[in-house]
Design goal:
The chain has 436 residues and is α+β, with helices and mostly antiparallel strands. The chain folds into two domains: 46-260, no CATH class; 273-435, no CATH class. It has helices at 2-17, 20-27, 46-56, 70-77, 154-160, 259-295, 305-322, 340-346, 378-381, 385-399, 413-426, 432-435; strands spanning 85-87, 104-108, 112-116, 122-129, 133-140, 149-152, 173-176, 190-193, 206-207. Strand 2 and strand 3 (112-116) form a beta hairpin. The longest helix has 37 residues, at 259-295. It starts with a helix and ends with a helix.
């Protein structure tokens, strides 16, 4: 017994000495075991609840023309058509259907992503599940009385649970150099995109509609011969407001691939990956701790330093991202084309002064008040108590000026005051010390 206990204590000491990121890499990616049980757990999300309504006869999908179930399912899931973006690189499930003339359309709201390909066999879905992170589904594009969402695990997780998504089921936005067939020229490199990415690296393999001044990006670009990235001239791809000369838009619900929608998409996907990582790693740490306490006959509430270290290792990156640390600065105003911006703003809760975390800036940064609207989401509320309290305490310290870390130097005094006031007024389940 003493030898076993010595070995266990040695492992604990080693884990406690590791850096947070290494602990996360080592222990944070095995989500098909206790306590996550990703593949075998029963999902509870917007898509699974729609399927329940369909099974009960209280919801019915309508099949219409070339779009199949697309229009109907967007309405049922409350996903706005104005969120449409078009990606023509062959970097997703139905890649044989995707090319510059037949891009994949992507629609999204705060929790659900819907992918549509012309003549596609299925519609593709990913949805944020508060306990499981991103859960993936397909819906066959064949007219029938009882269409059914089929959950996908292994096929999707090959790409959607990698180091690019922090080792958890998630989404990612990639920027590539595409050739005339939509194939990414991997020798030229690619980029994983979020709000920290400079515009000149964004949207390779995507169509982009909108105005952005003299800023450059890789959208609307098709390489027709082998060029080094520094030799590319994409002047014709900048400030494009009409895609009609580039492809037939009649198969799509919208003629736009809105630049503001793209920027929100990029912010949101990475934020959700970090929320899932914080959820999974904390639950795993607490599960591991409970096992150690039982084996070593410690009190059930005994807290190990390694547990605190793992919570901090996922809590700090989440705090930084939610507060837009490292956000790429805009050098000119951004303006979209689809009306997505106005629709997105209308969906936000507002304080007594009419302010919302969904208010855009689009002059020098994405949002007027640099704190993610996803702090007011089911996924955030579902974080384990330990990491949720850690994140909220650190955010509070930043907003109160007690935490002056350089990661938050972009937040001026007026930003901190406004964010704090908006959060107190619009977010539920805030700690009592926030409101005193």
């Amino acid at each position: 017994m003493h030898r076993i206990q010595y070995c266990v204590m040695t492992v604990i000491a080693t884990i406690g000495a590791m850096t947070g990121s290494f602990v996360t890499d080592l222990l944070g990616d095995d989500f098909d075991r206790e306590p996550i049980n990703y593949a075998t757990s029963q999902p509870d999300n917007h898509v699974s609840r729609l399927q329940q309504r369909m099974d009960q006869g209280t919801a019915k999908l309508k099949y219409a023309g070339a779009g199949g179930y697309l229009q109907s399912v967007l309405e049922e899931l409350q996903v706005p058509v104005k969120s449409q973006t078009l990606v023509f690189s062959k970097t997703s499930l139905q890649r044989q259907r995707i090319a510059p003339m037949t891009p994949r359309a992507l629609y999204f709201n705060d929790d659900v992503y819907v992918g549509f390909c012309q003549d596609g066999e299925v519609l593709e879905f990913s949805t944020m599940d508060p306990q499981l992170g991103m859960v993936f589904y397909t819906l066959e594009q064949t007219e029938g009385d009882k269409p059914k969402f089929l959950r996908q695990t292994d096929n999707c997780l090959l790409c959607h649970a990698s180091s690019q998504t922090h080792g958890v089921p998630g989404n990612l936005v990639r920027s590539v150099y595409p050739d005339a067939g939509g194939f990414p020229i991997l020798s030229s490199g690619s980029f994983r995109i979020d709000h920290t990415s400079s515009l000149d690296k964004r949207w390779g393999g995507w169509y982009v509609t909108g105005e952005h001044g003299t800023q450059k990006h890789l959208g609307n670009l098709i390489l027709r011969n082998k060029q080094e990235p520094e030799q590319i001239d994409n002047r014709q791809g900048q400030n494009v407001t009409d895609l009609g000369s580039r492809l037939s838009l009649s198969p799509y619900l919208s003629p736009h691939s809105d630049i503001v929608a793209l920027m929100v998409l990029e912010h949101q996907t990475q934020a959700q990956n970090l929320l899932t990582q914080a959820n999974f790693v904390t639950r795993q740490a607490l599960h591991y701790e409970a096992t150690l306490n039982r084996e070593l006959k410690e009190p059930a509430d005994h807290r190990w330093a390694s547990t605190l270290s793992r919570i901090k290792s996922v809590g700090d990156p989440l705090v930084e991202y939610l507060l837009f640390s490292g956000e790429a600065r805009l050098q000119a105003p951004i303006r979209g084309t689809s009306g997505f911006q106005d629709e997105f703003i209308r969906s936000g809760r507002r304080d007594s002064q009419g302010r919302s975390l969904r208010d855009f800036d689009l002059q020098t940064r994405l949002f007027k008040y640099p704190c993610s609207y996803l702090i007011d989401s089911a996924a955030f509320d579902a974080l384990p108590k330990d990491v949720r309290e850690y994140v909220l305490q650190r955010i509070w310290n930043v907003l109160e000026g007690k935490d002056q870390a350089r990661e938050f130097s972009h937040l001026g005094p007026a930003d901190r005051i406004a964010i704090r006031e908006i959060l107190v007024a619009t977010c539920s389940n805030m700690p009592t010390y926030w409101t005193k």
